[in-house]
Amino acid sequence: MALHLGNACLCAFSHRKVQRIRAVASENFAIKTEEDKVKLGGSDLKVTKLGIGAWSWGDTSYWNNFEWDDRKMKAAKAAFDSSVDCGITFFDTAEVYGSRFSLGAINSETLLGRFIKERKERNPEVEISVATKFAALPWRLGRQSVLTALKDSLCRLGLSSVDLYQLHWPGVWGNEGRKKLSLLENDFSGYIDGLGDAVEQGLVKAVGVSNYNEKRLRKAYEQLGKRGVPLASNQVNYSLIYRLPEENGVKTTCDELGITLIAYSPIAQGALTGKYTPEKPPTGPRRQIYTPEFLTRLQPLINRIKEIGQTYSKTPTQVVLNWLIAQENVVPIPGAKNKEQATEFAGALGWRLSDEEIVELRSLASETKPVTGFPVEKL
């Protein structure tokens, strides 16, 4: 979860200058019917069973070895087009992905908007589901800050509305809620009210949260419910080797309340793909998380994942993504940097691991010490 503030939107917000784009796959794509999609929670929004995360697009502070250039731009564009060609039309971004304070960085929303526009020019029939997020920064106060940030995001994306708008993390600095003074004094969350306002103003089709624990999740669900607005999703860190949502009540609560769990870092930022070894760990900041020592302990699990994959003619990446999809009510959003990765992700769909394999992999993964997640999940 990058915490880098993107460029402020400089253009005036205008419904006349932007386009509305939603997801539906054309007849040439692998995903062809509404049955190949899932509803997000109690909303009317349907998305593909697997999405694409755009955290790395334009970023120079966590991904891409601290640089962004034309070659990486072309690779990201190819990842987008390949995803759509394979029928994966759900893309998740955020206003803080990509930072103007990092040399060469480009805001991820800006890139996604550009990719959509170029694709639309070639294929007017294609529609894309876009999800983005509001950053609960310390100086942002109350419900109006949500709407202001959303309109800036829409400007960068070149859209008049998005399909899913999410609170990126709770207002942990106390800026999320405020005290309402009245005869019946009560607390309420300004950010959640802002989400409800966005729905009522037609700026979004569905709303969600991210990195919310069980208590916060129930509160948000109840507050939106009073306005007749369903809480569609909770986006959290979830993978075979990071199963905190199973342990802290978040997954159970999502299932109980009918909230879709969107899983970010579903392949553990590449650690579960099998391409990293103790001798060849990942580069950049990820090396501090997935150390040679950690990768050594991970090898028995990786080896078993490879063996299972061979029985299905699938890669380790496809196996671990399928494992998540098999948990039900889960939509993984792996990050695709290039065409090859996007194409590989599509291979996680259309088949299912056996119940015995699902249990076995969880058991093996339990023997691996979990990595550190996003701290606000536990607040």
TrEMBL record:
<feature type="domain" description="NADP-dependent oxidoreductase">
    <location>
        <begin position="49"/>
        <end position="364"/>
    </location>
</feature>
<dbReference type="InterPro" id="IPR018170">
    <property type="entry name" value="Aldo/ket_reductase_CS"/>
</dbReference>
<protein>
    <recommendedName>
        <fullName>NADP-dependent oxidoreductase domain-containing protein</fullName>
    </recommendedName>
</protein>
<dbReference type="InterPro" id="IPR050791">
    <property type="entry name" value="Aldo-Keto_reductase"/>
</dbReference>
<dbReference type="Pfam" id="PF00248">
    <property type="entry name" value="Aldo_ket_red"/>
</dbReference>
<dbReference type="InterPro" id="IPR036812">
    <property type="entry name" value="NAD(P)_OxRdtase_dom_sf"/>
</dbReference>
<dbReference type="InterPro" id="IPR023210">
    <property type="entry name" value="NADP_OxRdtase_dom"/>
</dbReference>
<dbReference type="GO" id="GO:0016491">
    <property type="term" value="F:oxidoreductase activity"/>
</dbReference>
<dbReference type="InterPro" id="IPR020471">
    <property type="entry name" value="AKR"/>
</dbReference>
<keyword id="KW-0521">NADP</keyword>
<keyword id="KW-0560">Oxidoreductase</keyword>
